[in-house]
Amino acid sequence: MKAIVVESENLSVQDVPDPSPAAGEVVIDVVAAGVNRADILQRAGNYPPPPGASETLGLEVSGRISALGDQVSGWAVGDEVCALLAGGGYAEKVAVPAEQVMQVPRGVDLVSAAALPEVACTVSSNVFDTAHLSTGELLLIHGGSSGIGTHATQLAHAMGARVAVTARTQAKLDRCREYGAEILIDYTRDDFAQILKDNGGADVILDIIGAKYLSSNIKALSTDGRLVIIGMQGGTKAELPIGLLLAKRLSVMGTTLRARPVHGPGGKAEVVAATMARTWPLIEAGKVEPVVDRTFPLADAAAAHDHLNSGDAIGKVLLTVE
Ligand SMILES: NC(=O)c1ccc[n+]([C@@H]2O[C@H](COP(=O)([O-])OP(=O)(O)OC[C@H]3O[C@@H](n4cnc5c(N)ncnc54)[C@H](OP(=O)(O)O)[C@@H]3O)[C@@H](O)[C@H]2O)c1
């Protein structure tokens, strides 16, 4: 099969051996693959795949099942699916544990389905199962126009929460409003912590910045607020204002999806099942939609990375396999 191979940070299409399904795995003939920031980090040598995972880039795909390993039940050859991967998505075929495979929600086309696994599993697990956002609460989402941000906004809005977002331009904030955000903050101009305080404080913050925002995030939280950090774009080391943490009874949490085991508490099987139960009915009801900014052919993966790096994308960037 063809796959994207990384050599000294250059990406090229090469012939590599087809994957065969181990026990408990299925093989998917890939139709589309999501592009994630993690892929760009891995390409630069800064985010190695977890032990045992494919060296090929790519954390999510959509496509059709073409082979079943032993001990797989519930799936058949020809099923149209999307899947969460530990790696291997930038290819014509990928093997994946059956528990990480999801039906394509009714009403979603097969290419757009590749925009769902990473954002849906990340947002559902962090915002709801980890930070326990509930109806009527206020969620602050940093990077509201990102793939994660556009999905988190729609899901939280559909679940009856209020949403505040940060973004860099008015055009991005306008799109966030369309997805259900009501407090729109241009972080290049405005002090998000002050705006949140003026609105009673955030009950939950979904943060992708890390160190640079830690202190302001703590200020922006209301009493009993929960900060869940899923990205480190603004660095990894910062001082924690412990006085405020105690006074406001705050929780600070961090998670990553890729490194989770397949099975066991908090494993990918559990995350995928909970995500499908929570989010798929809302997608099928038209309350949450995949947000695809642009698609590129698999061979143009480098151009897709450049586009994600440009900061111009709103929602997800995808690769398509002809
Ligand atoms: N822990 C996990 O399991 C997990 C899983 C998936 C993704 N993630 C993380 O989630 C983040 C989003 O990923 P993605 O693939 O959806 O999109 P992405 O393209 O990585 O999005 C980056 C976002 O960061 C925003 N941003 C940059 N500087 C900012 C600042 N100072 N304040 C607020 N926003 C800022 C950008 O918006 P502007 O253009 O408006 O600046 C852009 O929307 C990434 O950091 C990724 O690593 C984590």
Automatic annotation (TrEMBL):
Example GO molecular function: NADPH binding
SUPFAM superfamilies assigned: GroES-like, NAD(P)-binding Rossmann-fold domains
Gene3D superfamilies: Medium-chain alcohol dehydrogenases, catalytic domain, NAD(P)-binding Rossmann-like Domain
Entry keyword set: NADP, Oxidoreductase
Domain of life: Bacteria
Domain Enoyl reductase (ER) per the UniProt entry, residue ranges: 7-319
A Pfam family of this chain: ADH_zinc_N
Entries under NCBIfam families matching the protein: quinone_pig3
PANTHER family: OS02G0805600 PROTEIN, QUINONE OXIDOREDUCTASE PIG3-RELATED
Name this polypeptide is given: NAD(P)H quinone oxidoreductase
Biological source species: Gordonia alkanivorans CGMCC 6845
